[in-house]
Amino acid sequence: MIDWALLAESWPLYLNGLKVSLILMAISVSASFLLSVPLAIARVSPNPWLSKPVFLYTYVIRGTPLLVQLYMIYFGLAQFEWLRESIAWPLFRNAWFCAWLAFALNSTAYTTEILAGALRQTPSGELEAARSLGMSTATIYGRILLPSAIRRALPQYGNELVMVMHATSIASAVTIVELTRTARDVYYNHLAPFEAFGLVAVFYFVITFALVGLVKLLEGRFLRHLRPMSIPSKAA
Amino acid sequence: MFLHGYFPAILEGLRSTLLISATSLSIACLFGLIGAGAKLSGSRVAGLAADVYTTLIRGLPELVLLLLIFYGGQIMVNALADRAGLGYFDINPFLAGTLTLGFIFGAYLTETFRGAILAIPRGQMEAGKAYGMTRGQVLRRIILPQMVRHAIPGFTNNWLVMIKATALLSIIGLDDMVHRANLASAATRAPFTFYATIAGLYLAVTTISILLLGWLERRFSLGVRKVEF
User: Fold this and answer.
1) Angstrom distance (rounded) from CA B130 to CA B124
2) Which of A77, B10, B72, B215 is the most exposed place for a label (fewest CB within 10 A)?
3) Is A63 within 8 Å of B206 when comparing Cβ atoms?
């Protein structure tokens, strides 16, 4: 039933798609992580002039579909003549740049909320101890708050990584030939949906569980202190 | 003229998006209840089947599942119809789209419902049985009313993710809000205006959902005291 010859023939295309998907994910995730650390600090700030704008940003991004955000950037911005005549236009005409921008901005909103949530869970004693030692706010964030908040956010951040990986499939809607676009092309050329989409499903499945496994490893390394202790048996 | 006269068409698209979301949600609830029932049934086979279902769905992007089920289903239905000696069937995109989304989010709701049922103290079900209630009565009088309260936060999340996921259905040709915006953009050369408009409408729908479900959660928690520190 399954056309193995077709799978063997299109295998190299899929490997190329895999490369594109992974690159897209890597650049989006790195940008969103770098952006969301300062934004999360602003989000938990007692100053409403800092926290409210960040809340507005995350609320709007999280309340609208990523596909529409991507269309707004890739198709939408061409509407503005001043942008088309500016030096930035070659960037906004490029599907890669637009997809990267949309994914990074989208993931930033979610990552900011995850990090802000973890920051809020800091035991107040830790902060008081740091203050009583005379640390400056920057030192407190650098040495106390961020390292422990990022560790605590790890399980949820792992989910976010999987979400971004899955979200890269949406780049297929703006001409980027990543995994899903590859599968759609193979489908249109051979009208073999089970082969075309089944193979790509295997790829996504493997990446997803590799990511989950990687995060588990990191959790074992960085959240070791939170692991339930095994109860020593009486015989020992 | 407001939105170059396309505003009624966009609103029609909003109606379609809401109809798709509501239909998919009902289907997802059905799959979710079946899945949660299977996981909690104690039956090895049913539990394993439900585990495969939720793991597979959560390991794949929604768009890939959508394409696989939509195009794969089309070929499968026609192969079956061919064997039965029936003519060619054109699969209705609305039916295929909502069934697929329902199937996908049923997997997420399975976990939500399972957690909600597990949050009800076992003693209550045992007490119900001790009073001579049947399984159905325990389910209807004890489990379901309390399950709703525990399930609402997870349910809200899934609903919000699902409304946004309906946008993907425009890719397989469903006439939803995004599709309307695509058409209007092509006709007027004002794409940003239309995509921003539908983004605003999505935001309105999610905001109203959050408010309504928050109210519902408070109603179902009337008898529960919150911890006050």
Assistant:
1) 10
2) B215
3) yes
Is B57 contained in some domain? yes
pLDDT in tens, A93-110: 999 999 999 999 999 999
| Contacts B65 to A, Cβ<8 Å | 201
Give the range of the structural domain holding residue B85, as residue numbers without chain letter.
2-220
DSSP state, A232?
Answer: P
A204 contact B CB<8A: yes
Residue ranges covered by each domain of chain A: 4-224
Tally of domains in chain B: 1
Q: Does the pLDDT value for residue B90 go beyond 90?
A: no
- Asked whether residue B226 is assigned to any structural domain, the reply reads no
Q: Is B63 on the interface with A (CB under 8 A)?
A: yes
CB A128 within 8 A of CB A52: no
Tens of pLDDT, residue by residue over B91-132, are: 788 988 999 999 999 999 999 999 999 999 989 989 999 999
CA distance A166 to chain B (A): 5
B145 in a structural domain: yes
**For B202, which of A64, A205, A209 is closest by C-beta distance?**
A64
**Residue B222: per-residue pLDDT:** 83
At the topology level, CATH places domain A4-224 in MetI-like fold (1.10.3720)
A236 has pLDDT over 70: no
Q: Which two tokens stand for residue B61?
A: 């992007």
Residue of A24, A59, A25, A67 whose CA lies nearest to A39? A59
CB spacing of A76 vs B170 below 8 angstroms: no
Residue A165, both tokens? 């990986």
Q: Output the domain CATH number for residue B201.
A: 1.10.3720.10
From chain A, the residues in CB contact with B71 under 8 A are 187, 193, 197
